[in-house]
Design a protein that fits this description.
The complex is a heterodimer of chains A (about 15) and B (about 260). By secondary structure, chain A is mainly β. Chain A is rod-shaped. The mean pLDDT of chain A is about 90. Chain B has about 260 residues and is mostly beta strands. In chain B, a hairpin with a 3-residue loop joins strand 2 and strand 3. The mean pLDDT of chain B is about 95. The chains are: A mainly beta (about 15), B mainly beta (about 260).
């Protein structure tokens, strides 16, 4: 099954 | 000192009902630009971004930038006490530890104020880069909600594919499979019933239906929803809030291992 991505791996902390 | 008077108080009620189950606690940021919020769900899969521009308020006073930590469930409870036609005013003092919500009935015969304690929230603010999406689908929000609800009775995930043919929503589960294709439809008399597909490149992504269904709680905010997709990027599901702003949900895709 595909794995759920994490939003923090796409958008970086500012 | 902060004082924000929103004539269409029902907008704030609808916003809270849309996000209270997704995010527990969040900081509301108030600046000259407007009243905004950015928050992730507890498992960091989805991100909510709300903007209510200052011009949309009848009265907008924000002497200095203020960040107010609130429990969204409690805030929703308080706003539920406002009538649908009520004018809602949000008030807070700089450095204070509470926020006041004032509700005025349209003919001014009933005025209520609810005071809520603020909380300190350590939140991480994420930078969302400007993105040229490969496909943007605009469709009736009720239709999108119906599709997500129907598919979630069959499976847990939805594969959204945009091609020249249209946008396909697919799922599979123990009992079988389902495919729903929506084609571009601009010929309708009512613009709110149109489906418009802008596609640069065909794109296909898989998402958890549980989150999509949660986002569709915002359906009462707007007759149309915009779904923006790019390969290997979070989808953006956007509901416009009248002329004054937006409620956007970002959802990380499911990725093949």
């Amino acid at each position: 099954d595909p794995k759920q991505g994490n939003i923090m791996s796409f958008f970086k902390k500012v | 000192m902060l004082e924000l008077r929103l004539v269409q108080g029902s907008l704030l009620k609808k916003v809270m009902e849309s996000i209270k189950d997704l995010v527990n606690d969040a900081n509301f940021d108030c600046s000259a630009t407007g009243f905004s919020l950015q928050a992730m769900d507890s498992s960091h899969v989805a991100l909510v971004s709300l903007l209510l521009r200052s011009e949309g308020f009848e009265h907008y006073r924000c002497d200095r930038n203020l960040s107010m930590g609130m429990n969204l469930g409690n805030m929703a409870k308080m706003l539920k006490c406002a009538g649908n036609d009520d004018i809602v005013t949000i008030k807070a003092d700089d450095g204070g530890d509470c926020v006041t919500f004032m509700f005025e009935s349209p003919n001014q015969d009933k005025i209520a104020d609810f005071e809520m304690k603020l909380m300190d929230i350590d939140s991480e603010h994420l930078g969302i880069p400007e993105t040229e999406y490969e496909a943007i689908v605009r469709m009736p929000s009720s239709e999108f909600a119906r599709i997500c609800k129907d598919l979630s009775t069959i499976g847990d995930t939805v594969l959204i594919s945009v091609t020249k043919e249209g946008v396909r929503f697919s799922t599979k589960g123990d009992i079988g499979t389902a495919n729903i294709v929506c084609r571009q439809n601009t010929s309708v008399d009512k613009p709110e019933e149109a489906t418009i597909i802008e596609m640069e490149t065909p794109v296909s992504l898989t998402f958890a239906l549980r989150y999509m269904n949660s986002f569709t709680k915002a359906t009462p905010l707007a007759t149309q929803v915009t779904v923006s997709l790019s390969s290997e990027l979070p989808v953006v599901v956007e509901y416009k809030i009248g002329e004054m702003g937006y409620l956007r949900f970002y959802l990380a895709p499911k990725i093949e291992e």
